[in-house]
Automatic annotation (TrEMBL):
Keywords: Cell membrane, Hydrolase, Membrane, Protease, Transmembrane, Transmembrane helix. It comes from the Bacteria. The keyword Hydrolase applies. It is a multi-pass membrane protein. This is Exosortase A. Signal peptide: none annotated. InterPro entries: EpsH-like, Exo/Archaeosortase_dom, Exosortase, Exosortase-1, Methanolan_biosynth_EpsI. Coiled coil: none annotated. The keyword Membrane applies. Residues 321-504 form the Methanolan biosynthesis EpsI domain. It comes from Parasphingorhabdus litoris. The chain crosses the membrane at residues 22-41, 50-72, 84-102, 166-185, 197-217, 224-244, 264-285, 313-332.
Amino acid sequence: MTSAVIDQSSDASPDKVSASQWVKHLRLLGLAVAVIITLFWKDGLAMLDAWWNVSTYNHCLLIAPIIFWLVLQRRDELVKITPAIWAPGLLWIGAASVGWLLGEAAGVSFARQLGLVMMLQGVVITLLGPKVVRGLIFPLFYSFFLVPFGEEFVPFLQTITAKMSMLFLGWADIPAFIDGVFISTPTGYFEVAEACSGVKFLIAMIAYGALVSNLCFQNWQRRTLFMVAAVAVPIIANGIRAFGTIYIAHHTTTDFATGFDHIFYGWFFFAFVLVLVMAVGWPFFDRKIDEPMIDGDAIERAALRPSKLSSKAALITAALIIATPVIWTSALSAGSSPVPEKIALPNVTGWEQVDYRPRFDWRPRFDGANHQLLGRYRQVSSGAEVDLAIAVYDRQEDGREIVGYGQGAFDPGTDWSWSRNLAAPLSGKAVQITAPGPVVRDVQSFYRVGNILTGSGSAVKLETLKAKLLGGNQQAVAILISAENLDEEGPAIAMTEFRNALGPLDKLADEMAGLR
């Protein structure tokens, strides 16, 4: 009788141990996640703000519920797997912390937010172990789509859309002329604006394609082909959309074409594209509807090298790795980097300051700058006019970056639009922007950070990173030389002569920052 009781207890033991293990490890995971969210709440809040307020990232609001649903799909099989501490997961946390540190130092929000998501992934890997991670591999890494990204591709997609439109217009025998992202036809003047770049649908389609590839395919070749279609078809469809708008305007009116674009293309066209991609892929789906997403028994049987790290040691080590970049950046940011209380536009030999009266109001955007100046100069000998804008920062931090999307030569929230890149001057960059009229303006941008003068946003980020990580001058200065394009050669010549008359721009920038 006693022996029978012992046998029954022995049979029930594994299930009880497994359940207790899951409770223990999930509690540890909850604690770790709470610590990370507490330390990096600003980055988490910035992500939520982007999801809610930036239409390009509205699809991210669905990613978290999808991840939750993907985990629920695997629940019955996951409970067959025993969680365990896995020390190599700390390496992923370390990589995430370094990424966050670099993003914080360089003022790159994408890197900080990516680092936050990777930290959360890292504690899952460390505290649940390789077997559980194998079962959660797709939902775990699908969480990368929580990070807002894609705005940096807007100019490229605008250009591609404009060129495809020209190709289709040629096939339709509609005469057209292209200048950057602006297309002229006998019936109108059209801009492939940022909203027409197709970036919103492309990013959402990539996330959707990844989900379908996992749920509906097992063969990797089919998954790859479906993902290629998920990327290529939206880009081509957006080119057709832009062409269609111009084609309709050519045969009706611009107002009718614009309204038709917003209603038909905005609501129906891309829904049709989505259905089309699914319809093409449907016959090739090779995963059965009732087939489990993972095999918990097979995963549990896999050999596992036990980790010698205790749960307490894993938590402490992870906490130290996560907290180190926060402590480091906080210590460095405590230093001061003052700029003058007042600055003024410089006197330029051969040029006189005149009232700033542009044909279409233009003001560069530099959020959070300590000082911003904008003035117009007229060349005494020729009468040519050039505008000079200067922005000075005592330091760069979140929301106060000297370069970034929406910062600099034109504010995407205004009527100005990027048209094309121009030949870059020495240590600078040049773009052409356009406002209604059309009014065309050339802008040359120069940035002074640390010991470099550059027009490269990447170089600015790297120099900012260097100064923040190793210490040094935190001040940053932007100098923009601009002119309205009244003829083909005038702006370039006048801007070059004005830049030469200003003297060394690095010295001017240092004077504005109070470093000389």
